[in-house]
Amino acid sequence: MNKAIGILGGMGPQATIDAMNKIIKNTPAHCDQEHIPVVTVSIPDIPDRTQSIINHDDKPLEKMAEYLKILEAAQVGCIIIPCNTAHFWFNQLQKRTQTKMISIIESAVHFIQDSQIDEVCILATSATINTELYQSQFIENSIGFSTPSAEMQNKVMQSIYQYKAGNIQQSKEMMKEVINFYTKKKNIKFLLACTEIPLILEESIKAYPELFIDTTDVLIKNAIAWYQNAPIAKVA
């Protein structure tokens, strides 16, 4: 058996569970023993990533680095973070561990290129948008993109926070306003660049899968590909 996939989660807890479910759903297993081993750290006291970026502090980095050590102690073979905004600190985290980390942003870029998609509309937290985590990579790789207007971005952000607060229906209604606003204007493909958004838009994704790119799903498929192609761990 290969070394386990490590999940540095808790940002938020539902997004972490979604990532775990997607590992199970995308694994061609016929019995328990054929599933991929996963070690998950979901400790949700990591400070709000968006607020820390706004405040120019690294509080989430220190907490994530602390919990990274739990995954290292478990001797996982690779680590994924099912939170787009947390990737603001991805390179710094990678420098703190010798364990391979798979980037959700890099995974999305490769997927868009391989799928020959010309342009996407980025739906993400305001911190992910403002720090240009995706835009910088899209420019470098000649991928077209757009971002919501200030008014629509505020609705996206409020929808995410409402979901985290447990106000699910209100969250869904706000996000659907954004989707409806842009789908009326032109043929568009949405990049769901916050791991809560696929949960908020679950019904819409099932009804119109061609409209959406789920970055959690793309990350998970990359992690599964890593596991399937990783060298078999030797038994001491």
UniProtKB/TrEMBL annotation:
The lineage of its organism: Bacteria, Pseudomonadati, Pseudomonadota, Gammaproteobacteria, Moraxellales. GO terms for molecular function: amino-acid racemase activity. Belongs to the aspartate/glutamate racemases family. InterPro entries: Asp/Glu/hydantoin_racemase, Asp/Glu_race, Asp_race. It comes from the Bacteria. Keywords: Isomerase. This is Aspartate/glutamate racemase family protein. SUPFAM superfamilies: Aspartate/glutamate racemase. The keyword Isomerase applies. The keyword Nucleus does not apply. PANTHER family: ASPARTATE-GLUTAMATE RACEMASE FAMILY, GLUTAMATE RACEMASE. It comes from Acinetobacter seifertii.
